[in-house]
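hey m, so remember when u said the tokens were messed up on ur end? i reran from scratch. heres the input so u can diff it against urs
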Amino acid sequence: MSPVHVGTSVFPGWISIEYPPAGWTDTFIFRMSSSAGLPPDAYAEAVKKLTWQLKRLHHGAASVWVQIDGPGRWYAREVRRYLKGASISIAVTSSMVEQPNSTDFWPPPPTSKVPSPPPPQAREWYLGDLSQNELACLRVLDRLQEGYTSEVAALAGLELDTTSKSLRKLVEREFATLIVDPGGPTVLRQIASVGNRSFSRVNFVQKKCYPLYKISQKGTSIALRSWWLPPGYYFPERWECRTPADGRHRKVLRKWPAWVRKAWPHAEVWSGWSEVYLKGLDATPDALAWGCLDGLETLFWLEVESGHRSTSKLIQVINRRLNQAEAYAKSMRVHLAFVLLAMPWVQNAAGEALVGIQEHAAIVTGDWREFGHLPIPEWGKLRLGTW
């Protein structure tokens, strides 16, 4: 299957499918990997951004077939939920499906009595000859805009050493820039006095710091192409839905997938993202990991609470977020591991909010200062990290 283009948009493939007695479709294929660094709603938005060129520039009534590559079923269900009501006919299936049924499209696909002629062929976009690890780091860094090695490693699902080498390679290729260089000296100016005279003395000292990387414009173009979007497209939906300040809160939520892997070695983590937007939810998770726990497809939902709210307000907010998370997981037919990371007194205060736990959910709290330490979750129960 060869790539085709409509305007500046490039699609991985195209097919004309016959659905008797209605006729033939004119269907463009969009391939989507759940491990490509984007949460499902952001990736679905990328599909919507391409539909305007299909409607305005393509001669014929076109439809889109989204093929999702990855384990489990939640990612595809969420993409389908986000795209429902789109202005063009779209089918969302697993990449293992050879051909979608006509009922997979919504709204029903437009058809013609004869097969449509194929659109113009296009070349595969150049992705910088990056390795899979380098591309994974580039995608994560583009979503974060800037991040530390440990943050990129956790979200890319890579070891620290592998991530560090990949990020340095991206800097060498000018796909990223190094904002903070841990090898550079820090200037310390001291004021000294001798009698009535004062003078300044400059010392060069080595200050402990960590490398901080920022995506470059060149790197952004490669990342967009890897998601099948033209390099110049405005795509802010891929970024974290809030911009957290560089502090403990941000470091905790960006390391969430690695936290789950360390705390629960028996769990599988397929993908994870910080500051995730989910369509239609008033309260979105600080971070979300997706995988398998006890053989069950599970969303690992993280809330980080600093304790700056009053106790009554804290109970109200946490209870609302738990109820939303449980209802969402139930509607998506997956299990839920809801985790609150906070100081011990906040965990104890939030205990009043973590009630009425449903059978498909496990609630856990932990100390946000203790990376990778969490109680073992139990379905239908609450486990406080202060016990």
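this time it looks ok to me. Residues 132-238 form a domain with the Arc Repressor Mutant, subunit A fold (CATH 1.10.10.10). if urs says something different then somethings off w ur setup not the seq
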